[in-house]
Write a structure and sequence with these properties.
Blueprint lengths: L4 E5 L4 H12 L3 E6 L18 E5 L12 E4 L6 H4 L3 H22 L2 E7 L26 H21 L3 E6 L2 E2 L10 H10 L4 E4 L5 E3 L1 E2 H12 L9 E3 L4 E3 H12 L5 E4 L14 H7 L7 H14 L13
Parallel strand pairs: 1-2, 1-4, 2-3, 4-5, 5-6, 6-11, 7-10, 8-13
Antiparallel strand pairs: 9-12
Bound molecules: nicotinamide-adenine-dinucleotide and uridine-5'-diphosphate (UDP).
Uridine-5'-diphosphate binds next to helix 5 and strand 8.
Length: 323
């Protein structure tokens, strides 16, 4: 195997740290770039002593000059409370981050993958969501900074591809969970596990009938790497996620049962523009990449709960007051 120089932006985050770990284990030469807005060094601490791993503190909204063969562009706050904390910065991170990384890919002739999102489909009218669905996004709502930022980034990727021949990959990631989620990120899986472990009420927004499909992190990382190494005539976009769909109430009940605590369910207002349903159509990923998730929700939740039990949640700085 020839060793590649690989840049992972957002590499200290939840998904980024798992990706860096996998690439380091493969023997690649990995550069992790992060401004630590929503993550901490502890996520990649175990990699620091590895000779094929480097860590750079940098903000992707500013240009960087590196020599690389591949770029995984993951830098962007992903939890609603994090990306709504400073929505203008979120949009800048998606758009200016994409421009800066695409510029680097063009100069280095590097292959570049964009971590896009199921949020490009907004609150979907089509269910499950295939890649051909163009979405139902509110461009002026509180989620728009993230949804429209990611949509604009996809546009930039395809324009750099058409205009400059940049070798791109775009993956649309659906809700992913697992060890190293920030315990105070406000996302549903981390919230419910934290609350159940502390015996606090489980906060269900709305009546809990809205659905999500949860992918375990190891499966997702397999899919991202398969896409980067997939055929050049398949830039995507491709959905990556687990099509097993659950209501938020079902998720709450599973977590309480698995943690075995005394938490009761507490109902609060549904946030504006909260998608009613979400499930990926992964036909394209199956056909073109031979990829499909393997880990069932119960198994993934068990591993995630075990990790949450192993950490001291108070060591985690809440990046924003929005949890
Ligand atoms: P995360 O918040 O844990 O990771 C994001 C990382 O990017 C963090 O380490 C953060 O500090 C860093 N970052 C943010 N702004 C930056 C900037 N301006 N410059 C440099 N670094 C910056 O979130 P995650 O769940 O690991 O998400 C990673 C990527 O995957 C994001 O682009 C996200 O939009 C995408 N995604 C994730 C999910 C999911 O369910 N986890 C779903 C869809 C898309
Ligand atoms: N949610 C909830 N309680 C929480 C956190 C989230 O009921 O404590 C709901 C939220 O309203 C949404 C779903 O869980 O319907 C998933 O939310 P998350 O923030 O994890 O991600 P989203 O898929 O909405 O971006």
């Amino acid at each position: 195997m020839s060793i590649k120089r690989i840049l992972v932006t957002g590499g200290a985050g939840f998904l980024g740290s798992h990706l860096c770990e996998r690439l380091v284990d493969q023997g690649q030469d990995v550069i992790c770039l992060d401004n630590f807005f929503t993550s901490q060094k502890s996520n990649v601490e175990h990699l620091l002593a590895r000779p094929n791993f480097e860590l750079i503190r940098h903000d992707v909204t500013h240009p960087t000059w590196l020599e690389v063969d591949e770029i995984y562009n993951l830098a962007c706050p992903a939890a609603p409370g994090h990306y709504q904390y400073n929505p203008i910065k979120t949009m800048k991170t998606s758009v200016m981050g994409a421009i800066n990384m695409l510029g680097m890919a063009k100069r280095c002739r590097a292959k570049i993958l964009q971590a896009s999102t199921s949020e490009v489909y907004g609150d979907p009218d089509v269910h499950p969501q295939p890649e051909s669905y163009r979405g139902n996004v509110n461009p002026i709502g509180p989620r728009a900074c993230y949804d429209e930022g990611k949509r604009a980034a996809e546009t930039l990727f395809f324009d750099y591809h058409r205009m400059n021949g940049v070798n791109i990959r775009v993956v649309r990631i659906f809700n992913t969970y697992g060890p190293r989620m920030h315990p105070f990120d406000g996302r549903v899986v981390s919230n419910f596990i934290r609350q159940a472990l502390r015996g606090e009420p489980i906060t269900i927004f709305g009546d809990g009938s809205q659905t999500r499909s949860f992918c375990y992190v190891d499966d997702l990382i397999d899919g991202i790497i398969a896409m980067m190494n997939g055929p050049d005539d398949f830039p995507g976009p491709v959905n990556l996620g687990n099509p097993d769909e659950f209501t938020i109430r079902e998720l709450a009940e599973h977590v309480v049962e698995m943690v075995g605590g005394q938490s009761r369910l507490e109902f609060a207002d549904l946030p504006p523009d909260d998608p009613r349903q979400r499930r990926p159509d992964i036909t394209l990923a199956r056909e073109r990449l031979g990829w499909a998730p393997k880990v069932k929700l119960q198994e993934g939740l068990a591993r995630t709960i075990e990790w949450f039990r192993s950490i001291n949640m108070d060591d985690y700085r809440a990046p924003t007051p929005n949890y």
